[in-house]
Amino acid sequence: MKLHFIDLAREINKLYIVSQIPGFRKAEKSIPLHLNSLKISAHGIRIDEYKYYLERKRSQGFKKRWTIKLGKRRTQNPPIDSNVLALMVPYYKNMQKAFEKLMFDLIGKRKMIYTKKLEFRHFWFYRMFVGVKIQAEIIETMWFDFSYADLDQLSNILGPKPLKEFSTRLHSYKILTHPIVRNSERLVLRLGAENFNPRRINHRHIHLKGFYRYHLLVYMNEWIENGPKVGMEFSGDIWAPDKNHWRLIADEKWIKEKMYEQKCESGGRRVKADERFPNTVYSISMPRTNDPDTEIQMSLMKNESTDSHFQIHLKIQPSGTAIPERFDSMYWELKLWEFRYIFRAGETSIHFEILFILLMSVVGTVLIAMIFGP
To answer: Domain residues of the chain, as ranges?
Structure first.
């Protein structure tokens, strides 16, 4: 039986040799496994772009006897290259036993597995990794609820380095106090059974997914009122169910307008983008009324995700960290958007005259700012 091990590019030749020679197989099983993704579900394992899955298959000539088919396919939509690897005859009574055999054939007695992303689809799977350590960068669980006790058990198989990201649905606040979660660099939360309350979460970087723009800004204001410390961050992807061109333009305008209003009301200023975020389209800095030695940098960024085209990011930092821009043309940019909407709606007959006057005003403002400074 040929299975997937360390290097997908050399899979065919290498696995054939390894599967035929026990000595090679034993040595190969002692080498750490390096993966991009390891996803474990009820009936299969996904290793990078390949999925190994189990299916019950009725044995010919036996009405009540079943075997379990082991298959493999590439994870594309639609799935391609699907083929049967083996019929696991002795395990027709118990799917879990077949799954344990599949785990052993794929992972064996390796002491360490390195993966960028580790995803569990059921709580009992982590119990199969006896004597194995998994050094993951990201842990994601969306289809069930980890309990605090589950995370205690999971900590026994995780490597020594803290996670870069822990991602889950917000079903319980208790698990967010577990060391696995608290020590992660970023906590990603999606909508769940619990309502989001930033006052109940103490984490260096909270990131929300699946929230509307209005709710996201409300939660950000509540987070600011909660008094976050220097270095703490709050961000969120803006969920956009309607992805047509004009809807996305309207979202961008609405967010920039709210940011511009906050900048003006707080006595803030437009600043250069954070170097970590090259896709920034607008960034402002606002002083904190309760701590004059700190500031809040708020940035709007474009996303490449299909679920969200924009992301908002907040960071608490020492005053003067953000580099100010010479001028803020957002007021005129918003006016241009208004006239673009008017032209699209066909509500005026003097499009070109208004556009000319508006452009001259913008040019004049820019020239004055460049000559005389901010």
So the answer is: 330-372
